[in-house]
Structure to design on (158 residues):
């Protein structure tokens, strides 16, 4: 019986050491979690209805970019001012998908953009891309987030 009491006493003494472990504070846990998040990438890229049936993330992303590129090209091809421009065959468009699913389009020009009529192209871009199809925003940790990317859009095909 003495051995059993001694064993329980030793066991009880050792178990108290496990109780004294320091519990990290909420701020420490939050800071650790923030460091682990990759802020440069999203969990789910923006998407459109046509690409929803794809399960592979890479194929879904490519489908979305192809859809945007094709749709922008088709909408801009309707404008004779853009298609008749002899200096411009491809334009880079910065696309911003907001968390509320709204889209912003901005033309990106090289540093020597004196050769392009920036104001005319910008106004045509905004006028033609006003009724753009519905886009789902990107998702990061279950929350819709803003994403930006630059797409080359072919204006003149020969």
């Amino acid at each position: 019986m003495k051995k059993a009491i001694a064993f329980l006493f030793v066991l009880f003494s050792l178990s108290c050491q496990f109780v004294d472990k320091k519990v990290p504070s909420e701020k420490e846990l939050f800071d650790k979690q923030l460091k682990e998040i990759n802020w440069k990438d999203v969990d789910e890229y923006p998407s459109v209805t046509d690409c929803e049936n794809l399960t592979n993330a890479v194929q879904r992303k490519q489908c979305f970019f192809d859809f945007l590129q094709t749709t922008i090209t088709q909408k801009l091809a309707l404008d004779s001012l853009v298609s008749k421009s002899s200096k411009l065959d491809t334009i880079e468009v910065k696309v911003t998908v907001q968390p509320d699913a709204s889209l912003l389009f901005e033309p990106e020009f090289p540093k020597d953009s004196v050769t392009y009529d920036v104001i005319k192209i910008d106004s045509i871009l905004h006028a033609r891309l006003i009724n753009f199809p519905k886009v789902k925003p990107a998702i990061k940790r279950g929350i819709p987030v803003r994403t930006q990317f630059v797409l080359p859009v072919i204006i003149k095909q020969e």
User: Anything to note?
Assistant: The chain is about 40% helix and 20% strand. The longest helix spans residues 57-77. The first strand starts at residue 90 and ends at 97.
